[in-house]
Design goal:
This protein is of the alpha/beta class and about 280 residues long. It is built from 11 helices and 8 strands.
């Protein structure tokens, strides 16, 4: 299946860049969110993302105007009725995502593939929100931030996902310039399980006074070859999200993913990082 008509639900940091990635790859894209203000903010962010990407050589020059022309924004989910492939990228909470899929199941064409960008929730759990006939067309596509620069996509079939759905999704990712890897449907998939075990130990080192967050970041960049240290990454993605993911992993796998007390304390204090907010590297 050549899925030329793409839909994305959720215009946050992930959803907007997923939509823009497909628009840059030549697809007709509809991006849906609940308010015009959220959609306008997404377009403003994407303009800055594109300009930075061109300066760094990560995105093709001269294609931004055409990509934005292919990216239609709307608050009306009914605009997704003619889509071939719809990706959900809303808040990381099972109930919120399930509501989106229940609504889409009544809107989208019978042959439309549904994908979720969840980073932790088992795909088969979310697939239960749609009717039995749709479940063969349900799959996970876990992108990494920033989507326009990160090549990896974890592609996760659910229990009932058809082989044709998996093949079409892998092909679509490759045509959008991504490198997909097939992952078993387990909580946290592969990368988040590795990443958060690493982050938990990094916070433990700070709790024990072994090193500061800044020095651990330097050590990981220079000693392990990581592009970002764990505390830089937590500040970029927010400690609140990291805590949320670790709580989901603890519920699935037990004590080895128990969030550290210092992380919980900092989240309660509002030191979560993110755009314009203090985090590990700027605690003041």
């Amino acid at each position: 299946m050549a899925a030329e008509k793409i839909g994305v639900v959720g215009a946050g940091l992930m959803g907007a860049e997923i939509a823009f990635t497909f628009a840059l790859a030549g697809h007709d894209v509809v991006l849906v969110d609940t308010t015009g203000e959220k959609l306008a903010a997404a377009v403003e962010r994407l303009g800055a993302v594109y300009d930075r990407g061109v300066r760094r050589g990560a995105l093709p020059a001269g294609q931004g105007e055409a990509a934005f022309a292919r990216l239609r924004r709307t608050t009306d989910r009914a605009a997704l009725a003619d889509r071939d492939f719809v990706t959900e990228a809303v808040f990381e909470e099972e109930g919120v995502k399930a509501e989106v899929f229940r609504a889409l199941d009544g809107i989208c064409a019978p042959g439309c593939i549904f994908a979720t960008n969840t980073s932790t929730i088992p795909i088969s759990s979310l697939a239960a929100a749609v009717g039995p006939q749709r479940r063969r067309l349900f799959i996970g596509t876990h992108y990494f931030s920033p989507v326009t620069r990160m090549k990896l996509v974890e592609v996760i079939p659910a229990f009932d996902t058809a082989p044709e759905t998996l093949a079409a999704t892998l092909d679509l990712c490759r045509r959008a310039g991504k490198t997909p890897v097939e992952i078993k449907d387990v909580a946290g998939f592969a990368v988040n399980r590795l990443l958060h075990a690493f982050m938990i130990e990094a916070v433990r080192l700070v709790e024990e006074g072994v090193a500061t967050p800044a020095d651990i970041d330097i050590a990981c960049r220079l000693g392990l070859g990581h592009p970002m240290g764990p505390f830089e990454l937590m500040d970029a993605t927010t400690s609140h999200l990291c805590l949320q993911v670790q709580e989901i992993l603890q519920d699935a796998y037990g004590e080895r993913f128990r969030p550290r007390p210092l992380l919980k304390q900092r989240v309660r204090a509002g030191l979560v990082g993110g755009r314009g907010k203090p985090g590990w590297r700027d605690p003041s």
